[in-house]
């Protein structure tokens, strides 16, 4: 039986993790807005001027988003997206940097679980933005 090994370069892995983290952050922000305010994807689409299916595809990962769209969605959800680029402190033999500061995405709220701990295990932190 033929076996295939797929190699993912470190820069491709970093890109995938970054994109996934941003998408998960937007999905959580949308779920919160939907729960608290009854916001629907059609409301977001109407505000941006696109069809609801475009918003659905972007939030579910079936369509890539530009940074501009990420900022638009964050604004509509009542959040502020801020991204920083800390230096990577790499450790030989690790694919996740142990001493790396996580990328920070500041929003107008902070995600907490019932145990009062961070519920977001991605490369992003969600903190209350300054008013």
Mean pLDDT: 79
In sequence order, what are the helices and strands, one letter per element? HHHH
Which percent range describes the beta-strand content? under 5%
Low-confidence runs: 110-122
Instruction: State the helix count.
Output: 4
- Which class do the helix and strand fractions yield? mainly alpha
The total count of strands amounts to 0
Bulk shape: extended
* Cα Rg: 17 Å
Task: Calculate the terminal CA-CA distance, rounded to whole Å.
Answer: 61 Å
**Helix fraction by DSSP (H/I, runs of at least 4):** 40-55%
How does the major sheet shape up?
none
Brief characterization of the structure:
The protein is mainly α. It is built from four helices and no strands.
Question: Any chance you could write out the topology, listing elements then pairs?
Answer:
Elements: H1 10-37, H2 41-48, H3 52-60, H4 67-76
Helix pairs in contact: 2-3
Describe the 3D structure:
This protein is mostly helical and 131 residues long. It has four helices and no strands. The radius of gyration is 17 Å and the shape is extended.
